[in-house]
Every structure is written in structure tokens, then in C-alpha cells.
Write a structure and sequence with these properties.
This protein has 802 residues and is α+β, with helices and mostly antiparallel strands. Helix content is 48%, strand content 21%.
């Protein structure tokens, strides 16, 4: 509660009382009043004139709160004799300037404060003329003692009466003022003290209807507006703080709030999880306590360089609780919180990212399966080796390795076994080389060894690298144990040397070594071969042939020739379908020149399917022309790749059903080496074919393993003696013995026998004497197109060729 003397109503009461006394004295006597009024008017006019002269300066001083200007104004007011005190206040009642001088003692003790004051105060409100807004007040105090000496002596009696009258009036005024002003203000004050200023549930002052249009209503509205604005600001700050806290806690990165010394002020849950510390433990540490010492200088620089606009990023190692290390990327920026400059740092674990980057970098230069250098790294090292070899005039070499029959292992045992085999091959190769040599994997089962400088202490460079290649071939003599499988794997090696007489590129060197490697394979595999220019020419021809072969089938360039098979009486007992390629530029190409390429490229599968379809079509055509009674079957050669296809038998059966041909007229010729490589799978396929009624023959018998085991196991119908034995049968005793043995073996196993390559009557007679009854060769006919076979069906017996 405000003390009475400080209440606005009481002060107004005093002021009103003084004014009432002055009016009472003025009305008590006309003359005295006239004198007093004139005197007072003069005094007031003087004061107001003085105040009017200084009003503009005083308004400026109060509006701008210019204490210096205000002090100069009050000092100038003191030049007026009746003014002993002057002051300037702003619109809040605060004093901007004040001055006062001592008052002389008066001989009349009439200024008792209970009746009338000796001193009179003039308060002049300072208002901006353009806007009508009060900016403060200018007050002066006047000493009326000198003016009132004569007046007091004549007016004591009137004073007493008017005093009572004025007092009553002033009290009435005070009561009215208290009821209409003071009490509402007190109520407003109590209401303000009891308001709920919680931003979530705010309250505003009620505006009584009787005060809607007066100053108190304006005051209440102003206060409510101010309170509402403040609450909105507080609510916004609260929301921002909640948002900041939510973002901080939900962030996947660790977030640290630091002071300028690196002391942790706050951390989020992710930081606690990453470092395996509780929040309380981290808040007792500084950033330096949880980071490796070798990064402390970087952290100090980061703290020093960070500002409000630019973040600073550093990579540091942070300790977990168990002293293990997290590699973190920490990003720091300055922030201001509660007028305190702090540092906000976010830390992200980049260990996995760094590992991934290293892995990507590794995979760019190394093979992911064997961990050997890949083609890109090999090319870099060959480039360096070429440069050094040219500068120092020494010889280096490149060895190109390709595993023999690796695809067979992959297809039969699975890619897992194949991958493990490649890993073991890589380990063996690395263990056998010098540290300066490089072994790389180009892909598949191809490996390249770079020898930047061939040791020549005892040998020439050619001999030195040949010894290294022989050493590598010996590495493959020992079996590989893969998933319980004991695998014997060999390799073919191609070699080229550098530098050469003419400048060669990396691709040239690799192509040369690759060419030499293919020559090793053609020579029987498990061998080494040096690059020669004629090899490259052969490879170029082969590549051209391969390219043309891709278009041969769709351009209908293939054609079937047929060669008759006869019995001892010269009767036609069958035909063998033989594939020919009528090349647009090279004419008729024999199968020996392109079948190998078709096998390697996989084109043999569509070509083989076409051969079956065309053979079946031709046989049906011949049947419609009436085949001789002695005709038993049409022989068709089957590629090993075609035969091992899981759906081969299904394809043949579908083709047989579609054409309606008698399957007993079909004889499939297979090579014995193909059967030996996977005898179990071959036996299964052959039994299914046998169930269809198809006859099965072993072509070129005697040139492979000639194992009695598979002859006993497989459901065969026929053996075909290779022409190489028939050709030498009359001049080579070994060939004669082999042929005699084959015939005897076939007879004991109840297999038919047919000899191919019979070219003379003497060959036939000798074969007949050994027990062979069926023949095929130039003695009877060369392979001819289907159109030229018609006369063979009517010849009885077939005429022998000259």
C-alpha cells in the first residue's frame, strides 16, 4: 500500500486546498482582493511569461531527455527574484534538472503549512505542439512573503473563515477524486499483482464499462497490450527453446554446447550414446578431456577461429568410456545464449565413412575376390616398368596366365568352388614371386604377372623369364583342396618381353601375351609360349572369323553336306550329316576351321540346334522320296557343349515329336573325351536318349582315353574307328594293331563298328579281313550337298570312286 503522503489523491488535495484558500482570500474583500489579485496576477503573468519564453526549449529538453539543456533552463529561471526553486521532469515524473536558493526569513509568520503555504509552485505541462503528447512538466516555486506582508495584517479574520470553508471544499474534492480516480487505480494495482502471467494460460485486466472512454480505460488497454506483447514474446522464446531442445535431442549427431574455454555446458543423447558416458559425466568434462591429445592444438584453433557466420570443421579422435576411439568430424559455430557467447559443436562418427572411402579406393585398384591388383593398377605399374626399362636399358616381361578347363569346374562344382580356387591360385602366385614383381587378376580366370626387370646374372632375359614360367607351371602340379574336392588344375602361359624395337603400348603388350597364351592352349594346354608376330596374325584371322560367325546363322550361310556309309556289299546303310560354312568371301569353310571358335563363343548351341532341325527336315524329305531298304540311320555330330545342356534331351524329343520322324533312324555321334570328363552326367543323358530309341556312337574312337570302363558303363550302339588309324593301316603295324583291337573289343561288347576315312579298295579289303563290316570314306563319295544325294538312293550297289 502506498503511504498517504505519496498518494496522488492526497497531493491533489493539498494543491486544491491551497487554491481554495487563495480564492477565499480574494473573495473576502474587494479592495484587498483587488490588490491581491493585481499583485498575484502580475506575479503569475511574470512567471507564465517567463515559462512561456522557455517552453520550447523545455519541451525539447524533456522530449530528448537532455539534462544539460534542462539545467541551463532552470538556472535562467532563477534570475526572476520571486522564484527560488525550479525543476523540469519527464513524462514519468523523473527529474531532469533542479535548482534552488535559500529563502530570506519573513517578519510575518503567516505561512504555516496548516493554512497556506508561503511558497507557491507553478507546474507547466510540456506538450509537443504537433502531436499533443505530453513529454513532461516545468515547475517553479515562488516566495510570496514579500507580496503578502500587508495583506496578512488586514486579512487574519477573513482567513480563519475562509480556511474552514476551503478545507471543507478541498475535502469534498479529495473524496470525489479518491472515489473516481484513486480507488480505481488501487483496484487496478491489486488486479495487476494478482494476474496469472503464465504464457500457457495468460490473463488480462478486465476493463470496467464506466472507464472505457476515460484515462483509466486507456491505461488498462495500454497495459493489456503491453502484457499481451510480453506474453507473446515469452511464448515465442519458450517455443524456440523447446524447438532447439527437440532438435538437439533428436539429432543423430552428437551436439555439444561449450563455453569459450571448451568446457561442456550441455550435450544431447546422441553424444552420450556415441561416447558411452552419462550426461552428468560429460558435463563435468571439457572438450579436451574427451579428445586425443594430438588434436588439442586443432581444437584450440577451432575455438579461436569460430564465429557467428562461419563454421569450422575438424576431424578428431574422441575417447569412449572404455577408452576405445571414435573418429569424429566436429563442426563448430559461435552462438549467443542469455547474452553469453558460446560454441555449438556437432560431432558425427565418420569411422564407417572413412572405411568405406578406403574400401572404394582399394577396389579401384584391387580385385575384390583375390585382393590382387586389378587392370587399372597393373596398367600403372606396366607404364612405370616401361619407362624404367627404356631409361636403364634392361629387359622386363609379361606373363599372361589362363587356367585350363576352369569353366568346367565352375559349371560342375559351382561358383563357390570356382571362387575359392581363384583365391588359392592367387596365394600361390604371390608366394612364388619377388616383392618387385606384380601379379594381377584381369577377370575370370585370367592372371597377369609383370616382371619389371628379369634377373640375368646366369641367363639371358628370355631364358630367365622362361625359368620363371616353368616355376609357375610347377606350382600347379600340386592339387588344390577346395571344399573337400581335390582339384588338379593346370594353366597356359603366354610370354612377351619389353622394351621392343618399336614403341608398344600397354594394350599391345597385354594383347601379345594373350595371343601367346592362346597358342599355348592350342598346343595342348599346360604349356608356355612366347609371342611371335605370326601368332598375332593368326589371332587376327580368328577374330575376323569369330565376327563373321556371329552373322553366318542369321544370313543362312550354313549348309549340311552328307557322306554315305556302306556295308561290305556296297549297299547304302546310312548318311553322316557334315556342317559346312559357305563364307561370302572365303567360299566353303571346313568345320575344323570354325567349330573350335563356335565352341568357345557359345555359338555352337544355336548352330547345333539348326543342324538337328535341318537334318530332321532332310531325312523326312528323303523318306518321302523312298529310301532304300538297306538304309538304317542318319548320323549327326553333337558338340560337347550342346550335349551337356540340361534341356538337350527335351529339345531333341520335342523336335522328334514335332517332325514325326522315327527316332531309330537317328544316330548321335559323341567324342569319347567329352564322355570321360563327366561320365556320370553323360551316362544319365545317354540313357534318356536310349529310351527315345536314338542310336549312340563314339566318334573318332581311339584318339582319346579309350577306357573299357566307360564302354561297359555307357549305353552305346556303335564305335567309329578314326580315319588316322585307317589311313596308316597298311603301312604302320601299330595302327593295324589298334584297329584290330578296337574291332575285337567292339565284337566282344556286341557293338557295331564302322571305319571312316576309307579311301582305297585295299583299305576296305583289309578292314573286312579284320572283321569290320561298315565303311565310310572317299572310296564311296566325298561329302556332297543334299541335292546330289538322290542318285545314291537308287544305286545298287554304290559305285566306287576312281
Amino acid at each position: 500500500m502506498i503511504p498517504l503522503r505519496q498518494q496522488l489523491g492526497f497531493r491533489n488535495f493539498i494543491l486544491a486546498l491551497i487554491m481554495m484558500l487563495v480564492l477565499s482570500l480574494a473573495s473576502s474583500a474587494v479592495q484587498i482582493y483587488s490588490d491581491w489579485q493585481a499583485t498575484t496576477r502580475n506575479m503569475e503573468n511574470q512567471v507564465h511569461q517567463t515559462l512561456g519564453l522557455l517552453e520550447e526549449s523545455a519541451i525539447q529538453a524533456a522530449y530528448q531527455l537532455d539534462r544539460v539543456l534542462a539545467q541551463r533552463i532552470v538556472v535562467s529561471l532563477m534570475k526572476t527574484p520571486s522564484i527560488f526553486k525550479a525543476e523540469i521532469k519527464d513524462d514519468w515524473g523523473n527529474k531532469l534538472a533542479e535548482t534552488e536558493r535559500p529563502v530570506m526569513n519573513s517578519s510575518v509568520y503567516w505561512y504555516d503549512n496548516n493554512f497556506i503555504e508561503r511558497y507557491r509552485t507553478f507546474a507547466h505541462t510540456l506538450t509537443l505542439p504537433e502531436k499533443g503528447i505530453g513529454v513532461g512538466s516545468l515547475e517553479v516555486s515562488i516566495d510570496q512573503a514579500e507580496i503578502m506582508k500587508d495583506f496578512t495584517r488586514r486579512s487574519w479574520q477573513v482567513v480563519y473563515i475562509k480556511l474552514i470553508e476551503s478545507l471543507i471544499t478541498a475535502m469534498l474534492f479529495f473524496g470525489v477524486f479518491f472515489f473516481f480516480v484513486t480507488r480505481p487505480i488501487i483496484n487496478i494495482t491489486h488486479n495487476i499483482a494478482g494476474l496469472n502471467t503464465d504464457p500457457e494460460h495468460p490473463e488480462l485486466l478486465d476493463l470496467p464499462s464506466r472507464h472505457k472512454g476515460d484515462e483509466l480505460g486507456f491505461l488498462i488497454k495500454s497495459f493489456n497490450n503491453m502484457l499481451d506483447k510480453q506474453l507473446r514474446i515469452e511464448r515465442s522464446l519458450t517455443d524456440r527453446e523447446a524447438y532447439f531442445r527437440a532438435v538437439m535431442e533428436q539429432a543423430s549427431d552428437g551436439i555439444f554446447l561449450l563455453d569459450s574455454q571448451g568446457q561442456l555446458l550441455d550435450v544431447n543423447a546422441s553424444a552420450c550414446y556415441a561416447l558411452k558416458h552419462s550426461k552428468e559425466e560429460l558435463l563435468s568434462c571439457s572438450l579436451f578431456d574427451i579428445c586425443n591429445e594430438k588434436y588439442h592444438d586443432d581444437l584450440r584453433a577451432m575455438i579461436k577461429e569460430a564465429d557467428f557466420n562461419t563454421s569450422i570443421t575438424k576431424e578428431v579422435e574422441m575417447y569412449r568410456r572404455d577408452k576405445s576411439i571414435n573418429l569424429m568430424e566436429i563442426r563448430t559455430v559461435q552462438v549467443k545464449i542469455n547474452d553469453q557467447t558460446c560454441l555449438l559443436s556437432s560431432a558425427r562418427n565418420i569411422g564407417k565413412r572413412k572405411s568405406a572411402e578406403e574400401r572404394i579406393k582399394y577396389l579401384a585398384f584391387y580385385d575384390s575376390l583375390t585382393d590382387l591388383p586389378n587392370r587399372q593398377l597393373l596398367n600403372d605399374r606396366i607404364t612405370q616398368a616401361l619407362r624404367i626399362a627404356n631409361r636403364h636399358q634392361h629387359t622386363g616381361g609379361i606373363l599372361f596366365l589362363d587356367l585350363d578347363r576352369f569353366k568346367l569346374i565352375n559349371d560342375s562344382l559351382g561358383h563357390s568352388v570356382g571362387d575359392n580356387l581363384l583365391k588359392q591360385v592367387a596365394l600361390r602366385l604371390k608366394s612364388s614371386l619377388r616383392s618387385e614383381d606384380t601379379v594381377a587378376r584381369l577377370g575370370g580366370d585370367e592372371f597377369v604377372i609383370l616382371v619389371p626387370e628379369i634377373p640375368t646374372e646366369e641367363y639371358c632375359a628370355t631364358t630367365g623369364i622362361q625359368h620363371l614360367a616353368q616355376k609357375i607351371l610347377q606350382l600347379f602340379k600340386q592339387p588344390f583342396i577346395i571344399n573337400g574336392h581335390k582339384l588338379f588344375v593346370s594353366t597356359s602361359v603366354g610370354i612377351t618381353l619389353f622394351p621392343q624395337a618399336h614403341a608398344v603400348s600397354i594394350d599391345d603388350l597385354l594383347r601379345q601375351a594373350d595371343t601367346a597364351m592362346y597358342q599355348s592352349k592350342r598346343q595342348g594346354r599346360n604349356q608356355l609360349c612366347f609371342y611371335q608376330q605370326q601368332l598375332q596374325e593368326s589371332v587376327n584371322e580368328r577374330l575376323t572369323l569369330e565376327k563373321d560367325l556371329h552373322h553366318a546363322l542369321e544370313n543362312e550361310e550354313f549348309e549340311l553336306f552328307y557322306q554315305p556309309q556302306v556295308n561290305m556289299q556296297g549297299q547304302l546303310i546310312g548318311m553322316e550329316a557334315l556342317l559346312r560354312w559357305r563364307h561370302p568371301q572365303h567360299g566353303l569353310v571346313a568345320p575344323d576351321n570354325f567349330i573350335g571358335v563356335a565352341e568357345e563363343t557359345g555359338l555352337i548351341l544355336p548352330i547345333g540346334k539348326w543342324v538337328l532341325e535341318e537334318s530332321f527336315r532332310q531325312l523326312i524329305s528323303w523318306q518321302e522320296q523312298s529310301l532304300p531298304e538297306s538304309f538304317r540311320r542318319l548320323s549327326i555330330n553333337i558338340s560337347p557343349k550342346q550335349f551337356i545342356q540340361p534341356d538337350f534331351v527335351d529339345q531333341l524329343e520335342a523336335l522328334q515329336q514335332q517332325s514325326g520322324i522315327d527316332s531309330s533312324l537317328i544316330c548321335l555321334e559323341l567324342t569319347e573325351n567329352m564322355l570321360i570328363e563327366n561320365i556320370e552326367a553323360a551316362a544319365s543323358q545317354m540313357r534318356r536318349l536310349k529310351a527315345l530309341g536314338v542310336h549312340l556312337s563314339i566318334d573318332d574312337f581311339g584318339t582319346g582315353y579309350s577306357s573299357l570302363r566307360y564302354l561297359k558303363t555307357l549305353p552305346l550302339n556303335e564305335l567309329k574307328i578314326d580315319k588316322s588309324f585307317v589311313h596308316d593301316i597298311r603301312t604302320d603295324a601299330s595302327s593295324l594293331t589298334i584297329v584290330e583291337t578296337i574291332i575285337a573289343m567292339a565284337d566282344s561288347l556286341d557293338l557295331e563298328i564302322i571305319a571312316e576315312g576309307v579311301e582305297t579298295q585295299a583299305d576296305q579289303e583289309l578292314l573286312e579281313s579284320l572283321g569290320c563290316q561298315h565303311f565310310q570314306g572317299y572310296l564311296y563319295s566325298r561329302p556332297v550337298p543334299a541335292a546330289e544325294c538322290a542318285h545314291m538312293f537308287t544305286s545298287e550297289p554304290m559305285a566306287l570312286l576312281d
